[in-house]
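DM between two lab members

TW: hey, do you still have the Transposase, IS605 OrfB family, central region entry open?
JB: yeah, one sec
JB: this one, 415 aa:
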Amino acid sequence: MQRLQAFKYELRPDGQQERQMRRFAGSCRFVYNKGLALQKERYAQGEKKLGYAGLCKLLTEWRNNAESAWLADAPVHPLQQALKDLERAYSNFFAKRADFPRFKKKGQRDSFRYPDPKQIKLDQGNSRIFLPKLGWLRYRNSREVLGALKNVTVSLNAGKWFVSIQTEREVEQPVPQATTAVGIDMGVTRFATLSDGTFYAPLNSFKRHETALRKAQQAMSRKTKFSNNWKKAKARVQRIHSRIGNARRDFLHKTSTAISQNHAMVSIEDLQVRNMSRSAAGTTEQPGRNVRAKSGLNKSILDQGWFEFRRQLDYKLAWQGGWLVAVPPQNTSRSCPCCGHVSADNRQTQARFECVGCGYENNADVVGALNILARGHRVAACGEDVSRARPARATYAASVKQEPTEATHCDSMSQ
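TW: and the structure you got?
JB:
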């Protein structure tokens, strides 16, 4: 079994190397924006979109052109990778997986990628890596790089440079050590509630730093734009954002690792986070209702990182030999896991569930997790390939057409 894995470290470049990396990131951004502008111009003129090979031919002309001859100072492979990213952005747009490609801005996700492992040298013993036109760079060696090197991405975040080393290695087909299955109900009050009754409290990293972030942003808004004081204030805002993201990722990794190691099958809701966090402001003709309350809810939803949590569960369960099943989320907290009665009156409060049909009582989030687990069992029983988190819309029919199994009987739910 081939395993692709990335190892990320903080770089420790000298002044010259840092200036070079900023130039390389700027060159890649220039090539991406120039290619996007060209594609939009061709579309306006009714011409066919250029493919990756056609853009690479133009890249050679741009590097030899007197107006953009400075592009020749950057390594050519990262520039080609910028065009490949543009081609992928168009593919995602046409496949309705993303919005139309947008122009990149300086200081936002600056990065460049080396795709050829033959040009890269890794000296783990001395904690350094060799990159074309940059030479040997020191990095903070926090763990060993495993596998054969595939590509390297250099990125800038909050004033610090990082290197992500992607490797490939052969591993044995994993066999899950755990034998249990669990359903997970995602929420705001409780980040994740498991069908066995355990739950994980939310971290709310943005909420913890919201006051400090607001004050830093207010201080930045009072500075003259692009002045030295404005740059210092901007760096302060970026550091707070970085702290928020790092805390959230750490929490998600620890939680997803614990769940993936202790369970062989995990059922989770196929939540459409973008739709759930859509603004309720409405339009001038049809203004929305409870806009402020919905805005606060949207902020709490986005602070949880549900999509990233699902992504981490997906690959970590695959590494452990387990699998992730995504099921429809409709009425999971309104359906009685004992008698199957569905009613909005079943959920008395945010936390209390009491079936109006049979009187079954439990925590509302636990009830949701139990229903999610039961749906996951029904999907798995259909014989479909549900590994690697197949989209739940491909399993809707299997999930809604079958009757609840005996696993949802009152006796088993009360355990």
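TW: got it. The mean pLDDT is 90. The radius of gyration is 25 Å.
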